[in-house]
Amino acid sequence: MFKKNSIATAIMFSATSATAFVTVNATAAETSVENDNVERIEVTGSRINRTDMETASPVTVISADIIAKSGYTSVQEVLNAQPTAAGMSLGASSNNGSGGKATVNLRGMGVERTLVLLNGRRMVASGTGADASVDLNTIPVAMIKSIEILKDGASAVYGSDAIAGVVNIITKKDYEGTEISADLSSTDKGDGESGGFSILHGREIGGGNLVVGFQYSERGEVIQSDRDFVPAGNSSFVPEGSLGGKTPDGNGGFEPRDHGYDYTTSSYAQTPNELYSLFTSFNKEIASDTELSIDAMYTRRESDQQMAPQPANIDLDRDQLDDKYNDQFDKVDEDGNPIETLNYRRRMVDAGPRIYGQETDTYRFSAALKGYLDNDDMWDVSATFGKNESKDVVENSIHAGNMETSIYAYQDLWFSGDEMDRDFLVSEGVIYTEENEGGNEQFTLSAGYSGMTENDIGYAMGVESRFESGYYTPDEVTQAGESTAAQQDPTDGNYTVNSVYAEISVPVTEKLAVEAATRYDRYSTFGGATTWKLGATYSFTDTFMIRSVAATGFRAPSVSELYAGNSGSFDYLADPWEHAQDAQILVNYTGDDNLSPEESESFTFGAVWEISDGISTTVDYWQFDITDAISRVDVQAKLDECAAGDMAACDAINITGDGSLNDLDTLTSPLTNIGEQNTSGIDWNISFNHDIFRVMLDTTFLLDFTQDDIDYTGKIDGNIGGYSEIKSTLTVGMDFTEDFSMQYTAQFIQGMDGEYYGETFSTDDVIYHNASASYYLNDSWSVNGGVKNILDTEPEEVPGGNDMETVPSVYDVVGRTFFVSTSYKF
């Protein structure tokens, strides 16, 4: 085994996250070769097998032990707790539009700009179809040995999508024995009950090692109105219905609407799901110099989101209304123009809440051969196949066309304000179940060669070919625009990419090492892209080193961006003319098959210092600049500019800017390559490890985040998420005996500023306190328990937030949660 010097030790303990007191080095592969008592390892962010872990790139490592002690039950929960996470991501508290998916958003640069790997190889995009990112629910926690987060651009090594960084999930291999684990959790309010169990078994068989495992988990629901901080909803869509903005008075007439509908009583704050995962790996030395490795995984997700009953919004032709109703409303507007329609709104409580359900199946199979030559050079070939299939439904959907026909036929019933019989609505075809399906597929072939000269010059080269496809087919009623929900077109497309790469690491002197990488990718959709990376480390002493990386990157447009049909989205917007009756306004999203790839430049510069025995620190400055970013225009910003008289802003979102209510019906948010994103900051980590105590403080200071000339630094917004200037995690571990340990963590989020309807607001600083304890009853049996959010800290109010008047991806909306787990090994 290689001997770590002081800097390597400092990297191992100080460059890891505040939640990751690891006792293993930051490897991305379990296989290694020993020659003359020297082991070579593969580090995330490089394809060169090295004799030490000192690279120019900062990497965070989170161990399986810390995941368990923290009570984390999903990969998304682990990653969202990191100070490097920002912006908006999907998870357990994403009720509106998530499709049950979980994602990671490094640096707040967008979930599609973080590459997710499994054992160094790409994961298939997954979700409900034609997805641009990985559903982290597909990766069972039971199979994880560690999670590595590369915090700089890595397109020159891994290709597209690695602009903001890389998450590499390392699975358990070369395992012997059997481990049975179970966990339970619940909030102190008695809801959100969750639990699961897993079985992991490994044994030597056929001259190799076979590992098989199964995991089941279930997450319980939390209703929004069951939390005191959630304000009552006040929607203009009321159960008794309204015509021309007025509600029935019970006597055949109408009166001004003086109340709204509370939609929080049937909406989830925590969405339920069930996960079933089966995974296996097999590793065997098939010859003295050749290894075979195979791994396979299958995950089924059954998830639900629940929202208030469908709001139906229908413009009725006045010529088809009875005079007794028609005559109660003005026939002409203030300019003398005839009013030919009357708007009818009704909260379809009679149909029941909208229940969004997903059943997704994700498969992954990978096989690889690795060989060692007489000169210790290595070759490898691999094939990886991934497939994701999904069926999702929306129960209690409303057919707008059938509802309009029924209203004309039964006007007295619809305008009475009385409850309506569900069986009647079914017979009229008003209620239906929306059924959609989609999927993603990925197939990758790769071959590589790497080695190291007698002068310790490391090198690697290889080729790769990848096929990606995706599709999403909405319900026919939705495609036809006959639903009261937004209209949506189908998506279907594919592309191929062929790549070649090379990498080199040169120890210029005993103190200075330089590394470089380049990659060329040729896409069937737009052509070629070349990226490069240049890094260096300089060791002043055995205890102090500086490091730096400059790199270019790119992100190819995804299937959903290239081939997506038009789709509607009800976004939370502030109408500057104040004519909209609700905060949610329909925006038409459009794709573009002529999109070009995004281009990026990144730079990191930092230092690693072992201050004294047991105390070490790392400081890294980082900067990312994206040009030709694929993004949608900021509709809110363009609305405000349009209202101020900027006609170019009006044209950008497809409205005339006359301020009329009908003008907002054409709001459009197209995908374009005109976007820019610039962000910079400092990551600082300091750790202390002595005797029974382990203390680590991990902090990210955001210096700048600007997107499309809008400064989001220190800001929070319901559409883009939160960009706190300081996020920090303090972790204190105490090993009182070999059998008993405790852990305390504090997560700090500095307050942010925002603006809604021209009014500014600020959120306060927030600290979440968590604690746990672990005890080994004997060599085989251990128990762990703890509390998340000990003080039951409520989320900060964010006017215009994307749900519950806050931003659930930034703040905890569930509250104090107790958890317990146990594991038995034999």
From TrEMBL:
Ranges of residues in domain TonB-dependent receptor plug: 53-166
A Pfam family = Plug
Question: By its UniProt entry, which InterPro entries does this protein fall under?
Answer: Beta-barrel_TonB (IPR000531), Beta-barrel_TonB_sf (IPR036942), Plug_dom (IPR012910), Plug_dom_sf (IPR037066), TonB-dep_rcpt-like (IPR039426)
Q: Which residues form the TonB-dependent receptor-like beta-barrel domain?
A: 322-790
Enumerate the subcellular locations listed in this protein's record, separating them with semicolons.
Cell outer membrane
Instruction: Specify where the region named Disordered lies, as residue ranges.
Output: 235-258
Per the record, the domain of life is Bacteria
Q: What is its main location?
A: membrane
UniProt keywords, alphabetically: Cell outer membrane, Membrane, Receptor, Signal, TonB box, Transmembrane, Transmembrane beta strand, Transport
Where does the UniProt annotation place the signal sequence? 1-20
* Keyword Signal listed: yes
Record's bilayer topology term: Multi-pass membrane protein
Q: Family assignment?
A: Belongs to the TonB-dependent receptor family.
Protein name according to UniProt: TonB-dependent receptor
